[in-house]
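Translate structure to sequence.
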């Protein structure tokens, strides 16, 4: 059995834990094609993860199940780049139980452009 599964969530599809994760555990790597920032700007899309000013990961491929991790204003995970700014790893920000949806904060720019105009659907925002 896989540690993660894709299921329906409030925001469409989401990625859910099938096992316990402790705070600080590596949950998954965000993978995809490494492209220049200029190419990322040309392509656009929802699955672009900026590594630095020059490079971006285009995570639109279906093999990248980390792309199903939704935004939350009160997330249970966080992304971190490796020291070479080549890879993005998603870590547990706190204890995560089986059945919980995995979330991280997508950042201010993405939130303002892609989420805010349609309303945030995270658990924190829907509860208020």
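Result:
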């Amino acid at each position: 059995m896989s540690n993660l599964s894709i299921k329906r969530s409030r925001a469409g599809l989401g990625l859910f834990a099938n096992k316990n994760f402790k705070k600080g555990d590596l949950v998954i790597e965000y993978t995809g094609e490494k492209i220049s920032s200029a190419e990322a700007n040309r392509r656009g899309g929802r699955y672009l993860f900026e590594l630095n000013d020059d490079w971006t990961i285009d995570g639109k491929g279906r093999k990248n199940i980390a792309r199903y991790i939704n935004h939350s204003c009160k997330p249970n995970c966080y992304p971190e780049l490796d020291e070479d700014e080549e890879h993005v790893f998603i870590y547990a920000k706190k204890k995560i139980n089986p059945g919980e949806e995995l979330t991280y904060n997508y950042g201010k720019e993405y939130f303002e452009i892609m989420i805010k105009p349609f309303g945030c659907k995270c658990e924190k925002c829907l509860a208020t």
